[in-house]
Amino acid sequence: MLKGILAISGQPGLFKVVSEGKNNIIVESLLNGKKMPAFASSKISSLEDIAIYTSQEDVPLKEVFKNIMEKEDGGKAISHKASTEELTNYFAEVLPEYDRDQVYISDIRKVIQWYNLLQEKELLNDEDEEESEESETSEEADDSKE
């Protein structure tokens, strides 16, 4: 679901990896569709690698997105521009055990903005992920038979 989706520090929105070069990667903005190079000197984070602090263990971002998707029946979440109180209450419904000391309102705004962008671009489909997991499991089973 989040494979190849990146956040680049200092750049608005999210990016999809288009191709890779020797010293950079070419990314496409999900906001406006423009392609640009991203260099190693940029702070680049893959959404797959991001997790949210909770009172027990960190929860991967994709799990948070799944929770939002279930709450909204696959629709859009509230606006990331909503009031601080609305956003914290909403996030507490989605992830009740999130660590209120380590997860700032700016983080909550980003998560909700990213969710809405990915949902709008129809990049939050669970079915593809489940199918790929099933095919990987069947491939592993085939490999073990040999």
Keywords:
146 residues, alpha+beta, disordered C terminus, two-stranded antiparallel sheet
Task: Describe what this molecule looks like in 3D.
This protein is α+β, with helices and mostly antiparallel strands. Helices cover 40% and strands 19% of the residues. It is built from four helices and seven strands; from the N terminus they run E-E-E-E-E-E-E-H-H-H-H. The protein has helices at 61-71, 84-94, 105-120, 126-145; strands at residues 5-8, 15-20, 24-29, 35-39, 44-46, 51-52, 59-60. The strands form two sheets. Strands 4-3-2-1-5 form a five-stranded antiparallel β-sheet, with no helix packed on it. The longest helix has 20 residues, at 126-145. It is globular. Mean pLDDT is 87; it is low at 128-146.
In which order are the strands of the major sheet placed? 4-3-2-1-5
Residues in helices, as a percent range: 25-40%
What is the percentage of strand-forming residues?
15-25%
Number of DSSP helical runs = 4
List the helices and strands in order. EEEEEEEHHHH
Main beta sheet: 5 strands, antiparallel
Mean pLDDT: 87
Stretches where pLDDT is under 50 for at least 5 consecutive residues are 128-146
By DSSP, the count of extended strands is: 7
Shape: globular
Q: How does the helix and strand content classify structurally? A: alpha+beta
Spatial gap, N to C terminus: 31 Å
Radius of gyration: 17 Å
